[in-house]
Amino acid sequence: MVECRKSGSLKGEIQVPGDKSISHRAVMFGSLAKGTTRITGFLQGADCLSTISCFEKMGVSIENTGDTVLVHGRGMRGLEKPEGVLDCGNSGTTMRLISGILSAQDFDVTLTGDASIQKRPMKRIMDPLSRMGADIESLPGNGCAPLYIQGRPLTGIHYASPVASAQVKSSVLLAGLYADGETAVTEPSLSRDHTERMLGLFGADIASEGTTARITPARELFAADIQVPGDISSAAYFIAAGLIVPGSQILIKNVGINPTRAGILEVCRKMGGDIRMLNRNEGRGEPTADLLVTHSSLKGTVIEGDIIPTLIDELPVIAAMACFAEGETIIRDASELKVKESNRIAVMAQNLTAMGAQVQETDDGLRILGGRPLHGAVIDSHDDHRIAMTFAVAALCSQGETKIQGGECVNISYPAFYKDLGSLIQ
Ligand code: S3P
């Protein structure tokens, strides 16, 4: 249980930990490359440590010295059959991306994880991978993990994905690295493109046009130096806190602002939020900037359509922020939120209601009528890190005390979250 209460203004400078999506991919691609990949700014969160442990179990030597991680790659055909099952913990990215790679190896493997991941849909990767020739089975038979994969030769496909999901796209593209012929994935709208950007740095022949990404099979990948920018999904809690807590001004240093991730910045600006971008840097592969966030009076907005995949993980904290905005905020086209670490539509509606907010759960989102004062409450995080962090932020502007059950789950993506938040409180 974590206890939070109303705070004074937030002031100062903060550096959020490395991007979770990019950290996972750097370990995975480094493991398949020839040579040593050096990763700086790696996120030392439980999810990314699950990825490291899976590749170590397949014979990859990985030196994790804190901020820097060295991955001594074994080449595309160098992975070994692990002893026992591979445990992906709470990490959907680990399970779905690794499945694409494992579908093409010359060994069999079982993938499992915690209670939450065993409820998340895996059919979305099983379908396209099976069409490529993969032998992949849900052991409980319900389309969920544990998954059993027997590696096989694969054939390239052009997959029209029904969901805008970077995990599905990446899983298929990684299988495509090993396939016979080109593989392409077309999505209904563009999801985060870290795989496309980073595989290029490792020497893969990969290109994107609109919402289609194509890859040709690779003979080898080559080690790269990867500098992981700060995670905009972690920065989101400080953006929201800075905007809603009166008198606040926060400088968030070195945040990844890849356009396929930065939808929150556009939405905050539409809501009247004062966010300035300083020190923009195109970077090698991923653009970054410092974000200067100043308290603002916000107004409600509509969030729908193609922007949704670019802020999908930030919607819980955006919903909380909307409670402090004038007028109504409507979130639509976001039914993917139901299959995240928790059902984030239901869990947000339940917990915001407990704090006195006027919220309505809809089939594909939420409607929030802002402007009503919130009060502290007992919050059930459902062991979902983004829910816990969202309510720590909401608590800063709510009367009385908020108790977050399972609040320790922030270790999935941001182990020092409460300490960092506390360091800004005046
Ligand atoms: C991720 C993709 C998104 C996101 C998740 C990380 C990734 O999931 O919600 O936190 O690293 O590819 P989906 O692919 O299910 O949308």
UniProtKB/TrEMBL annotation:
<feature type="binding site">
    <location>
        <position position="20"/>
    </location>
    <ligand>
        <name>3-phosphoshikimate</name>
    </ligand>
</feature>
<feature type="binding site">
    <location>
        <position position="21"/>
    </location>
    <ligand>
        <name>3-phosphoshikimate</name>
    </ligand>
</feature>
<feature type="binding site">
    <location>
        <position position="20"/>
    </location>
    <ligand>
        <name>phosphoenolpyruvate</name>
    </ligand>
</feature>
<feature type="binding site">
    <location>
        <position position="92"/>
    </location>
    <ligand>
        <name>phosphoenolpyruvate</name>
    </ligand>
</feature>
<dbReference type="GO" id="GO:0009073">
    <property type="term" value="P:aromatic amino acid family biosynthetic process"/>
</dbReference>
<feature type="active site" description="Proton acceptor">
    <location>
        <position position="313"/>
    </location>
</feature>
<dbReference type="GO" id="GO:0005737">
    <property type="term" value="C:cytoplasm"/>
</dbReference>
<feature type="binding site">
    <location>
        <position position="120"/>
    </location>
    <ligand>
        <name>phosphoenolpyruvate</name>
    </ligand>
</feature>
<dbReference type="InterPro" id="IPR036968">
    <property type="entry name" value="Enolpyruvate_Tfrase_sf"/>
</dbReference>
<feature type="binding site">
    <location>
        <position position="167"/>
    </location>
    <ligand>
        <name>3-phosphoshikimate</name>
    </ligand>
</feature>
<comment type="similarity">
    <text>Belongs to the EPSP synthase family.</text>
</comment>
<feature type="binding site">
    <location>
        <position position="25"/>
    </location>
    <ligand>
        <name>3-phosphoshikimate</name>
    </ligand>
</feature>
<keyword id="KW-0028">Amino-acid biosynthesis</keyword>
<dbReference type="InterPro" id="IPR001986">
    <property type="entry name" value="Enolpyruvate_Tfrase_dom"/>
</dbReference>
<dbReference type="GO" id="GO:0008652">
    <property type="term" value="P:amino acid biosynthetic process"/>
</dbReference>
<feature type="binding site">
    <location>
        <position position="344"/>
    </location>
    <ligand>
        <name>phosphoenolpyruvate</name>
    </ligand>
</feature>
<protein>
    <recommendedName>
        <fullName>3-phosphoshikimate 1-carboxyvinyltransferase</fullName>
        <ecNumber>2.5.1.19</ecNumber>
    </recommendedName>
</protein>
<dbReference type="GO" id="GO:0003866">
    <property type="term" value="F:3-phosphoshikimate 1-carboxyvinyltransferase activity"/>
</dbReference>
<dbReference type="Pfam" id="PF00275">
    <property type="entry name" value="EPSP_synthase"/>
</dbReference>
<keyword id="KW-0057">Aromatic amino acid biosynthesis</keyword>
<dbReference type="InterPro" id="IPR023193">
    <property type="entry name" value="EPSP_synthase_CS"/>
</dbReference>
<dbReference type="InterPro" id="IPR013792">
    <property type="entry name" value="RNA3'P_cycl/enolpyr_Trfase_a/b"/>
</dbReference>
<feature type="binding site">
    <location>
        <position position="386"/>
    </location>
    <ligand>
        <name>phosphoenolpyruvate</name>
    </ligand>
</feature>
<feature type="domain" description="Enolpyruvate transferase">
    <location>
        <begin position="5"/>
        <end position="421"/>
    </location>
</feature>
<keyword id="KW-0808">Transferase</keyword>
<dbReference type="InterPro" id="IPR006264">
    <property type="entry name" value="EPSP_synthase"/>
</dbReference>
<feature type="binding site">
    <location>
        <position position="313"/>
    </location>
    <ligand>
        <name>3-phosphoshikimate</name>
    </ligand>
</feature>
<dbReference type="GO" id="GO:0009423">
    <property type="term" value="P:chorismate biosynthetic process"/>
</dbReference>
<keyword id="KW-0963">Cytoplasm</keyword>
<comment type="subunit">
    <text>Monomer.</text>
</comment>
<feature type="binding site">
    <location>
        <position position="165"/>
    </location>
    <ligand>
        <name>3-phosphoshikimate</name>
    </ligand>
</feature>
<feature type="binding site">
    <location>
        <position position="167"/>
    </location>
    <ligand>
        <name>phosphoenolpyruvate</name>
    </ligand>
</feature>
<comment type="pathway">
    <text>Metabolic intermediate biosynthesis; chorismate biosynthesis; chorismate from D-erythrose 4-phosphate and phosphoenolpyruvate: step 6/7.</text>
</comment>
<comment type="function">
    <text>Catalyzes the transfer of the enolpyruvyl moiety of phosphoenolpyruvate (PEP) to the 5-hydroxyl of shikimate-3-phosphate (S3P) to produce enolpyruvyl shikimate-3-phosphate and inorganic phosphate.</text>
</comment>
<feature type="binding site">
    <location>
        <position position="340"/>
    </location>
    <ligand>
        <name>3-phosphoshikimate</name>
    </ligand>
</feature>
